[in-house]
Write a structure and sequence with these properties.
Helix content: 55-70%
Number of helices: 8
Strand content: 5-15%
Number of domains: 2
Strand order of the largest sheet: 1-3-2
Number of strands: 3
Order of helices and strands: HHHHHHEHHEE
Distance between the termini: 38 Å
Radius of gyration: 35 Å
Structural class: mainly alpha
Length: 191
Amino acid sequence: MRRISLFLILTVVSLVSLVAVVVAGYYVLSASSSQYPSNWMGQMMGGVMGGGNGAQVQAQNAAAPYLGVTFVVLVGVAVVSVGGLLYFFAFPEIRTSRAGAQPFLKSMEQSSGNSVSAYESVVKTLNADERKVVEVLTAHDGKYLQKYIRSEAGLSRLQTHRVVARLAERGVVTLEKTGNTNMVLLANWLK
């Protein structure tokens, strides 16, 4: 929530500043062009010499380049802040705190009357191939070589590698390199 507030404040400030710079720029640039209403020398030389090289000399305010740079910077800040807001609204983060989750789980266990083991909870979230690998591991006391898991689960070598890698990323299994294969160990909290 703090990041969204930061992006919201940044967006409002940058857009207000952008409007202020545009108004100030319009005022400065319009004042500089009305300061010299006629360029009599240019008109005289243009009329007499046929326009010379065709360029007209125009007075420019000294603040004009700074206004242009400020405008570009503020547009960039506005785009980034609006992009940040859109990101946080399109992809909200799921926030769970350890302190808030524990009482909720305990109250659920007490209200339902039956406790669910960690193994049962994890198995419910696995797809079919992942479930096969975990079942092979539990059948072998949570420790087995990856090449044997492949044959018992009926998966190809690539499928087994990918499934074991996904399970390792989630912390369901750990891997120990053993020769040309891996020893796959079921996590202690699942046993």
